[in-house]
Write a structure and sequence with these properties.
This is Lipase family protein. Keywords: Signal. Pfam families: LIP (PF03583). With about 425 residues, the protein is an alpha/beta fold. The protein folds into 2 domains: about 10-235 and about 335-405, Alpha/Beta hydrolase fold, catalytic domain (Rossmann fold, 3-Layer(aba) Sandwich); about 240-325, 434 Repressor (Amino-terminal Domain), CATH 1.10.260. It is built from 15 helices and 10 strands. It has helices spanning about 10-15, 35-40, 120-125, 140-145, 170-185, 205-220, 240-245, 255-265, 275-285, 290-295, 310-315, 320-325, 350-365, 385, 390-405; strands spanning about 25, 55-60, 65-75, 80-90, 105-110, 150-155, 195-205, 225-230, 340-345, 370-375. The chain has a 10-stranded mixed sheet, with helices on both faces. Helix 4 (about 140-145) runs parallel beside helix 15 (about 390-405).
Length: about 425
């Protein structure tokens, strides 16, 4: 039985917005002992396909009710180079009683921080730093496990593995999600059908990863039997989110974005825009989890960390940094599978218009899109987080329909 962990809205906020036997070596590099050793990839990386498993090991899932396996697999960075990414596969004790073989869902995680010890494949197994509040992730994962669906969670690029976590960088987040599905299906001894049905879900940062994966799937992972994608409160425009988050309760998120942009676009020398306080912020955030970032940079005014006193959102609107924001935009490629896009009407972190525009753009591209407005009980402060549990329930219900062959509804043309 799954143990739902209930926290206060403030605790939930910092997690969501700001989100068998011995080690098995399945490729070159051999087994690694202990959690720290597991996250050190073999050098050089083994030759293989995107989604091939490098290594795996059994671990515990804190909420119980599922067999958990930590994995390291091959994926791609923004430059198209193969990189190691880690994650966690959960196969529930609960049988799947729906149509066909047990389905697999990739969960694009909400924001958990930047430090290696914040990686969900650690914290969901009772390792790493507890203040990452990874149990919040159970809000989305456990309803899927309870229905008999297997779930794979990616740590994204640079979370746990060497390098920086490329927070909100579109392509590597999408690749990490798609390749996690491949890795889970290729892992031995799980009982999953290697060609079985899969889907993707996510909220906030995880919705950006899910939506990116939806757009990239046809080219990057045409081998997957992808049946649907859920995206809740999707931050499709990082400049718009940076402007709304600035000087708010999630002010620290702009620091995460700068850290990621600096890693993904070294040629732009993003750090040139920062003053000494800004440079110190980057060094500090690099090792922090979400709760720590929230405490350290609550109500951060990004004008105080730039050399010219302009906000980071203003910098993203001007050359050369406007390229960063432009290349992370989502909505230019219509998914080939049905999608459910939801957004809280009074979202105080990710503007509601971004969800409507995403659905509209995909509709115009010919996708099957259902758009829903979430009317939550927290109309202003914390409304982004307040909608999470509602979104999780809708995600589980809608994905169940996709796996059972029910036709996907389209609202294209009926609500714009």
């Amino acid at each position: 039985m799954f143990h739902r962990m209930r926290r206060s809205a403030v605790a939930a906020l910092t997690s969501v917005v700001v989100a068998a036997g011995a080690v098995v070596a399945l490729a070159a590099g051999g087994p690694a002992s202990g959690a720290e050793g597991f996250y050190q990839p073999p050098a050089p990386l083994p030759a293989g396909r995107d989604g091939d498993v490098i290594r795996s090991e059994p671990v515990e899932y804190l909420d119980g009710g599922a067999t958990a396996t930590r994995i390291m697999y091959l994926s791609r960075n923004i430059r198209g180079e193969q990189i190691p990414v880690t994650g966690l596969l959960l196969v529930p004790d609960q049988p799947w009683t729906g149509r066909g073989p047990r389905p697999l869902v990739a969960y694009g995680s909400a924001t958990v921080g930047a430090g290696d010890e914040c990686a969900l494949s650690r914290t969901m197994a009772g390792e790493g730093r507890p203040d990452s509040l990874s149990d919040q992730i159970g809000i989305f994962i456990n309803p899927l496990l309870e229905r008999g669906m297997a779930v794979v969670v990616t740590d994204y690029e640079g979370m746990g593995t060497p390098g920086e976590h490329t927070f909100m960088i579109r392509e590597p987040q999408g690749y990490a999600v798609l390749d996690a599905l491949r890795a889970a299906q290729r892992l031995r001894g799980t009982g999953l059908d290697p060609r079985g049905p899969v889907a993707i879900t996510g909220y906030s940062q995880g919705a950006a990863a899910a939506a990116s994966a939806a757009e990239l799937a046809a080219d990057h992972a045409p081998d997957l039997n992808l049946l649907g994608v859920y995206a809740g409160a999707t931050p499709t425009d990082i400049a718009a989110v940076a402007r709304q988050a600035d000087r708010g309760y999630a002010g620290g998120v702009v620091g995460l974005a700068v850290l990621a942009a600096n890693a993904a676009y070294p040629e732009l020398e993003v750090t040139r825009a920062l003053n000494s306080r800004g440079l110190e912020m980057l060094e500090t955030i690099r090792d922090l989890c979400t709760m720590e970032i929230g405490g350290e940079y609550l109500f951060l005014d990004s004008r105080t960390v730039t050399r010219d006193g302009r906000s980071l959102a203003d910098h993203l609107a001007r050359a050369p940094y406007d390229r960063i924001a432009r290349e992370q935009e989502i909505g230019h490629t219509a998914p080939a599978v049905p999608v459910l896009v939801e957004h809280p009407l009074t979202d105080d972190l990710v503007p509601y218009r971004l969800g409507r525009e995403l659905a509209s753009d995909w509709c115009e591209g010919g996708a099957t899109v259902e758009f829903r407005t979430i009317h939550n009980l927290l109309p202003f402060l914390f409304s982004h987080v307040g909608a999470t549990e509602t979104a999780a329930g809708h995600s589980a219900e809608w994905l169940t329909g996709r796996f059972n062959g029910r036709p996907a509804r389209s609202t294209c043309g009926s609500w714009f």
